[in-house]
Structure formats: C-alpha cells, structure tokens
Design brief:
single chain; alpha/beta; 18 strands; about 20% strand; six-stranded mixed β-sheet; Rossmann fold
Length: about 625
C-alpha cells in the first residue's frame, strides 16, 4: 500500500499518491517521460524515502525488478549470470554431487544423513525442474545452448537486457516489476512474454509504452500525470476511452459551473444593496460553500511535421537475387528480391539477429552486397534514425546539438524547434551524455527531422518514446511526402504506418533451408506468420553430402539438434542419479550390503556416462562455434 508524496529540491514530483498492489494485481504503469514513474517504483522498492506519507510492504516481500540500463559483470558467462538467479538451487546441486562422491569413497552415517536432507531441500525448491525452466526461458528469449558459455562482454546491449530479463523471470519472487520489458524483444518474443505474464499466478507491474502489449497483459492502469496518479480498471484501450470521457465530462462540468458563478456573481453585484439583498446574501453564501471544479489541465500538444527537401525518383531501391551478410563467411540472406517505390511505407520484419539492421546499412551504402544486383534511386536525401543514436555528440548540450545544424539561426528559432520535441527551460542546457533513453530518442528525432530528408530509414524509432510522442511521430510520418523504410516491434505503430512489408523468412532451396527476404502481398498478421514459421525439409529427400565452402545452414541445424538431444540425455541421467542417491542415502539400504554395492556401481557408471556426454557436447559446440554465423 502506498500513501505518499515525493519532492526533490523543493519541487513536488508526486502529490498524494494513493494506491495498492494486491495478490492478483496486473498493473500497467504509464505516463509521459519524466512524469515520475521511476520515482514511484523506487518508492515501492524502498530505494527512496517518501517526503510525506508512508509505503507499507508485506514482511519478507521478494521483488524481482527489471530496470533499464542494467550493468553486468562482463567477465561472467551467460549461464553463470542465469544460474545466479537461483544460487540456492545450484549450491544444493553442487553439495549433492560432492556428498555423493564422498559416500562412494567411504560410507559415513553423518554424510548419508546430510545427503538425504540436502536432496529433500533440493526437491522442495523445485531443483528437479529448474534446469528445464532455464532452457525454456532462454530459448524463448532467443538464446541457444551455444550462447551459454560466452562471456557477457560479447553480447550487445539489447542481448544483455534479454539475459537480465531471463534471470529475473527465473528468480523466486512475490512481486514482479518490469520497466520497459519489450525494448530489444522481437515480436515473437513479445508474444511469448505476453503469454508468460497471462499465465503468471503472482502480481506484476509493467512500465510500457506499447499499447498492444498493455492491452494483452494488464487489468489495471496506473496513470501518472502532473504528479498525480489515477487508477483505472481495465487494459490500455479501456483506460484511454475512459480517460477521454472523464476529461470531456470534467470540462463540461467546469464550463457549467463557471457560467453559474458568473451569473450568480452578477446577480449579487446588482442586488446586494437593493430590494433583493437577502436573496443576494443567500447566493453569496451558496458560492462560498461551493466545491470548485478545476479546469482540466491541457496536455501539451506535440505537433511534429516532417518535410522533404524535394521529390526522389519513382524507383528508390531495387534488389534482385541479392546475397548479403556480415562477411563472406557469414551469410545472412540469399536470393533477396525486393523493391521500394516513391512514397512507400515499408516495414522490415524478422526475428532478432536475422539481419534487419545489416539490410538497412546496405540501403545506406555502408555495407556491400555479396551477390546479385542492387539499384539505388536518384535524388535521394536520406535521413537515418539509428536506435543506438551513436551520431549524437555526447560532449555538447541539447541546444548546441541543433544550433550546429543551423549556426546562423537566432536563439529563438532553436528554442522553438526544441520545444516541439519537449525540450524546454533548463532542459536545453543539458549535456547529451546525461540524457535518459527517452530524451536521447527525442533529440535524435529533432536532428533527423531538421534535415528535411526525402527518404527516411528508421531502426526502432519508437524505442524509449512515450505514447504521446510516439503518436505525434506516427501522425507526422503519415503526413510525410517522402519514402519510409523502417524496422519496428511496435505492432500498433506498424499497423498504422506500413503499406508494404519486407519479410525475413526461411525457405527450402535445393533441399536446404535458407533465409531470404521477400515482399508478400499480405497484411501484418500473415507477414508475421511467414517470418516466424519454420519450414521442414522433405523427409524423403536425401541431403547431399557434398560440402561447399559456404556453410550449409542445414548442417548447423542438425549439429544444434544433436547438442540439444545430448543435453536432454544428460538431464535424464542426472534425474536418475538423484533418484539413486536418494535410495543410497536411505539408512535401510545399508542393511543390505549387496544392494548398496549395486547402487554405488550404477552411480559410478552414470557419472562416467555424464562425463562422456559432456565431452561430446564440448566437441560439438566447438564445431558449431567454428561454423556458426548470426542468423
């Protein structure tokens, strides 16, 4: 339960917040960037002390919290970080193995009892099922077994965020808090997370600007605006409808009351000293007792417009039978045949890591194709929105970032331009390096739109944008006269903007599975189904044993299947081993010397078999890493 207010340096950030999270809460926390969402979460977590009021939490409450911009130990491997979510289980597992070895060397009653108790604790914590749960969560978030032993330093920022999400979902908790969990997830992963949350039997709170995600997961909306919190039952769509109705009703009530006050005040003025003085005094008392309805604060309307410097040719891009990849050994897509025409709005769809950003770099001329033909249209003035905003100069201020684009412009012009993107007052003097993710995204859009391009290439443009800014950008792009090629995982944004799709998908070519990009004449749902479907090779078709210099993706797939199957075999052996150790730890076993001896012999066989399987997996993983490429 939260009944609190919060101020910083005399500025009230949160006013009389009153809300609670129950055992069945499914809450979406929304509000514009800077509205106080992070502050409210920190109050819930006890990281901040409220200026007034109180925050009451259940005793021994365990909270799993996914924050933005987490810092990880770069020297840890991925699987070590994941195991860290359940140190209790893995410490017990280590103890079981050590105690089992000790018993095999010589029987000791105290060790037998300790092993028995340790096994019981391990099973009570769900240790038998946890490794399968780990594998399920990691695979659902796009990681393979080949990733497990890589150091965190080699993963991208987005991949590290997904690793953090995996670890947090595997933690024991009473309350789950996720801050922008859909950033860096592809659409299939977002769908999986939606299903995961819908099945969850514990309360959760998510901060998100993805209205489709909110519609599919939450049953209550916490809305922060101007330091106040409103609580609305239902998902985002029902909140949005109720919010508009309530605002309209308040405006009408305010207007009616203002008319009544004006008419009554006029009556009092005209009659307070005349024949109707008693009536005037009565109405004066009525006014003094009236509860004043405040005028609804008008939301700051964000009006963006993207102008183009001139018209491009009709054929913007034409790709025919193109192969491209990271380098000659890492092919991402084969036989790509797509085109972009003037004023097309093309969304590139595909799973994370398939090569969407690489394709954008090819369109920008920053990477070369490997095979095929590519034509780039004439008179193109390109504006590129990079989701990492690496083009921003970290050392200068927000104001100077725009001023250097128009050095002759007066100060008023620059301030006016920045205000359109939500930068006002002292915010224009902030150094770029201290900006939040949302502020950086707004500044990058500010720079991009100022360039007046006739072709926009955009990589995840809505990441870190709040709903109001996202809507303003969407409306501006709808009215834009140029051509747009973009990557996004925001299903609402895609459905409202895209007129065509370039879809990464797998297909069968000469009895092998390849990745290509095509331009289906379908809607969003069919395009998503195509990109996330997995074709199967015909069983009757023999696979050629001839090896080309270029790595065959089918071979990698078979190698991965062997690795997965061997891991499942090890899990089966480990479960048998735990069962045998349970029997061996039973004091009744040691009254039968023959049985104890048989059990110990079988345990030794299993340990040898497990070691052999691990060595086999290690060899296969080395083969995989030598041959693998980013798909």
């Amino acid at each position: 339960m939260i009944e609190t207010g919060m101020e910083f340096a005399g500025i009230q950030v949160l006013n009389n917040i009153n809300c609670s999270l129950e055992h069945n809460s499914r809450i979406g926390l929304i509000g514009s960037n800077g509205s106080g969402k992070s502050t409210l979460i920190k109050l819930m977590l006890g990281h901040l002390t409220p200026s007034s009021g109180k925050v009451i939490a259940a005793k021994k409450l365990k909270v799993a919290y996914l924050a933005q911009n987490l810092r990880l130990n770069p020297e840890l491997t991925m699987i070590d970080h994941i195991h860290g979510a359940r140190e209790d289980i893995f410490c017990l597992k280590k103890q079981i193995i050590e105690l089992s070895h000790s018993l095999q060397m010589s029987h000791d009653k105290s060790v037998e009892i300790e092993l028995h108790n340790t096994l019981e604790r391990f099973q009570a914590l769900g240790g038998d099922e946890h490794e399968n749960e780990e594998k399920y969560v990691c695979e659902s978030l796009g990681f393979s077994i080949a990733d497990y032993h890589k150091k965190l330093a080699v993963f991208s920022g987005g991949e590290q965020t997904r690793i953090c999400l995996a670890a947090i979902l595997l933690m024991p908790y009473d309350l789950l808090i996720l801050d922008e969990p859909t950033n860096h997830l592809d659409i299939a992963m977002i769908g999986w997370l939606e299903r995961y949350l819908c099945k969850l039997d514990k309360p959760f709170l998510v901060v998100s600007h993805d209205r489709t995600f909110l519609d599919n997961t939450v049953s209550t909306i916490f809305h922060l605006e101007n330091g106040s919190l409103s609580v609305t039952k239902g998902n985002y769509s029902s909140f949005s409808e109720a919010f508009q109705i309530a605002r309209l009703a308040q405006e009408r009530q305010y207007e009616r009351q203002q008319r009544f006050i004006a008419e009554t005040t006029d009556f009092i003025r005209r009659n307070i000293a005349g024949q109707k003085t008693n009536m005037a005094k009565s109405r004066l008392k009525q006014l003094s007792r009236m509860e004043i309805i405040h005028k609804p604060q008008q939301r700051k309307q964000i009006q963006l417009s993207v102008n183009s410097s001139g018209r491009s040719g009709n054929d913007v891009f034409v790709l025919e039978d193109v192969d491209f990849g990271i380098d000659s050994q890492k092919v991402l897509a084969n036989k790509v045949s797509v085109r972009a025409n003037y004023q097309d709005r093309i969304c590139i769809l595909g799973p994370n890591g398939c090569g969407k950003t690489t394709l954008l770099k090819i369109l920008l001329g920053e990477k070369e194709i490997q095979e095929g033909r590519m034509k780039i249209g004439a008179s193109l003035e390109v504006g590129y929105y990079d989701q990492h905003q690496i083009a921003l100069d970290e050392s200068i201020t927000v104001m100077d970032t725009i001023w250097q684009l128009a050095p002759q412009a007066p100060r008023g012009y620059v301030l006016s331009w920045l205000a359109r993107f939500g930068f006002r007052g002292d915010e224009v003097d902030k150094v770029v390096s201290v900006l939040s993710g949302g502020e950086r995204s707004r500044l990058y859009l500010c720079v991009l739109i100022h360039q007046n391009p006739n072709l926009l290439i955009m990589d995840e443009p809505t990441n870190h944008l709040d709903i109001a800014m996202g809507d303003a950008l969407l409306q501006a792009l709808k009215e834009y006269s140029g051509t747009i090629v973009f990557v996004s995982h925001d299903r609402y944004f895609i459905s409202q903007l895209a007129s065509k799709y370039w879809v990464f998908h797998k297909m069968i070519d000469n009895d092998r599975v390849i990745t290509t990009v095509s331009m289906p004449d379908t809607g969003l749902e069919d395009a998503l189904e195509l990109t996330f479907s997995k074709p199967e090779l015909p069983r009757a078709t023999p696979v050629s044993r001839e090896r080309k210099k270029k790595v065959n993706p089918w071979h990698l797939e078979q190698l991965q299947n062997k690795i997965d199957a061997e891991h499942e075999h090890i899990e089966t052996l480990q479960n048998i081993l735990i069962d045998l150790n349970t029997q061996l730890a039973d004091s009744a076993t040691y009254s039968e010397a023959a049985k104890a001896k048989t059990l110990q012999a079988r345990i030794n066989e299993l340990l040898k078999e497990i070691d052999s399987s691990k060595a086999q997996i290690s060899g296969w993983e080395n083969d995989y890493l030598e041959l693998s490429y980013d798909e």
